[in-house]
Specification:
10 helices, eight-stranded mixed beta sheet, about 20% helix, about 400 residues
Length: about 400
Amino acid sequence: MNNSGKLFKYMNCRLIRDGDLIEDDLWVRDGIIVNPEYIFFSEKVTADVTVDCDGAILCPGFIDVQINGALGVDFSVNTDNIEEGVAKVAKGILEHGVTSFCPTIVTSSESTYKQIVSRVKKKNGSKEGAGVLGLHLEGPFISKEKKGAHDVNLIQTFDNGMVDLTKIYGEDLTNVAIVTLAPELAKSGEVIKELVERGIKVSVGHSVANLIQGEEAVLQGATFITHLFNAMLPFHHRDPGLIGLLTSKKVPTDVPYYGVISDGIHTHPAALRIAHRVDPKGMVLVTDAIAGAGLPEGEHRFGSQTMEIKGNRAVIKGTQTLCGSIATMDMCVQHLRKSTLCGTVRALDAASLHPAKLLGISDKKGTLNFDSDADFIVLNDDLVVLATYIAGECVWSKAKI
């Protein structure tokens, strides 16, 4: 159906706007949110299509800046058909309200990066799937002591600065949105500066950095902390480490943002509450999902291991060892609101506005402001996703609204 030039009015809904949940209509034309007053007075026209939302909440589409795979796809492993894998996940996450994402590559070999970085291109979302905002390269320039599930044998340093980094990733970093690195590594300052100059966001994580090293990284241009509390030194009252960046007076007040896996497993609800109360505007929800996300309960074979999915946990068969996150973004938002009592708007902002600000794209995504992309989702009061829209087109619907 050709909707070019048609004016859509979404009525009987509550919109997330300017930090509030307000009763208003949403007007969309040619994939952009428009100002109805301007159209009415300048064009003297009314809506071509009116949609009754039956009192639902309309929120900007969710943005996931750290997702390793889903639906049996592992972006770091399924490299031969990486484009197909990204497309499969992009389609599958629509039902969870995700309209844009950063496919994430964990610490890998040089040949793997050379296969992936040039092939996973930035792409607008559509009915075929969520938009790709660029890759998140999580490693290999990280701490061996805080490697988490990363392969220690593939961890690298950049003693020669950007020369070593581009040797691993390749010279062309056009398709990269975020790089996670350990700021205590030698030459990290010059690497951070160079990446930022290239328009890439730098995140600190998988690190044994102390607070001073973290502050230096932020002053060099780092603006994100990868999965706060996980794979970093624990908080200590004499040196709070990277966690201390949330209250540091030596860095700008609007950075860094920090990622949190709000699945009730990777981050204890008490830790979630502490982070949110200290810096609610910096919280960015991430799923950090692995290939098991979206798969049914039971046993699934991945590489040399068998994963067993029980409820919202994925463990190595016969053990209680977590394989990783199988969270979905809508679940993370629901858990955040329930655990922190932060309210609907703040919970939704953490999955939409904040990641958009982190990536520097809040002029077009992460809000329902006039002239923004019409990427939005329809939710009920339990924050269950009812429908997902990209550029004004309904790309997934639970039921007709």
